[in-house]
Amino acid sequence: MGILxxxxxxxxxxxxxxxxxxxxxGLKPGExxxxxxxxxxxxITEIHREYLDAGSDVVTTNTFGANHxxxxxxxxxxxxxxxxxxxxxxxxxxxxxxxxxxxxxxxxTGKLLKPYGDLEFEDAYEAYKEVVIAGKEAGADxxxxxxMGDGYELKAAxxxxxxxxxxxxxxxxTLDEKGKMLTGGNVESVTRRRCDRIKLRTWTDPAxxxxxxxxxxxxxxxxxxxxxxxxxx
Length: 233
Hints:
By secondary structure, the chain is α/β, with parallel strands linked by helices. The chain has helices at about 5-10, 20-25, 35-40, 40-55, 80-95, 120-140, 150-165, 185-190, 210-215, 215-220, and strands spanning about 60, 100-105, 140-150, 170-175, 195-200. Helices cover about 40% and strands about 10% of the residues. Helix 6 (about 120-140) crosses helix 7.
């Protein structure tokens, strides 16, 4: 059964964070967590398995920052190698647990698109396209685009996912206390994207006007990661 079909029958649960758990297992400051897909695959698989055993329906691949702006083959790691290994680690955990879905995780590129920065829309699209194609070939069950603060960058990621795969696409966006994204977009503009599911993420109190306006379901009953607040330092 596909993830969208399962959602019609019951609420589904995604996993939680990956980075903090890797830090607890020895990830050093400045070390790129995605490299552990290749250098420490047993740990990544173990974390996925722990989430599945705790009741998660979906585990997200350790690919949040995997793009060709950060990883180049000549530096020792290619995007395809990292994404392929990440999906394999998730799939191995799913096979061991006997249930679950692997979500190809894509985060912001780390660069601002024009006119706020110097990244062209087409270049952002190509970066996401590379990840999507590698993830699809490796066997990902869906795509999750995480913590986006720029609606234009979200558009690039969604188009890359929809035009280069037939996978369901989920997205999470980050809002301020006024219900605005980093670059000024609002929820209404985001809902015009071709996502199968969208979740809101706010740094403010859950009783804020943002959630009163759009409904607490985005944080608490939408089938995505449930999280709120600033990370602990």
